[in-house]
Amino acid sequence: xxxxxxxxxxxxxxxGGGADAAVLEAPTHEPVRDELGRSYATGKRKDAVARVWIKxxxxxxxxxxxxxxxxxxxxxxxxILRQPFEVAGVAGEFDVMATVKGGGLSGQAGAVKHGISKxxxxxxxxxxxxxxAAGFLxxxxxxxxxxxxxxxxxxxxxxxxxx
Length: 163
Description:
The protein starts with 7 loop residues before the first helix and ends in a 29-residue tail after the last helix. It has about 160 residues and is α+β, with helices and mostly antiparallel strands. The protein has helices at about 10-15, 20-25, 70, 75-90, 105-125, 130-135; strands spanning about 40-45, 50-55, 60-65, 65, 95-100. Helix 4 (about 75-90) runs parallel beside helix 5 (about 105-125).
């Protein structure tokens, strides 16, 4: 093992340069933006699905044509929407336009948060590491358990009567 390869340059020389050396380069992700300079992503949570577009701006968040404060009246839901920006360190730098369908307000807030996180990492690939570490790029797969036959609810049984 005296002739170990210690660096990428030595590895390229050992391979012989050329096309094989290009394969050995670490993949650099390119930003994904449309012709208007926006990034798009779909976020999901419970039964809610959010379509989210982000672009550089003043930090204005619009959900289904309404301001964030009007659509998500509870401060907790507004905080959930701000989390990805704070973790990535870009609070107030992006405008968000989202459309949400399905589920309740809590699920919709989670779906928009997931969509914002995915769109941020598409807009600026360097933001992927903090968003991934915070767990914002993973879809929360917890959903409502279905009702089974012979049961009152998903797991609750009917009252037992001995006589």
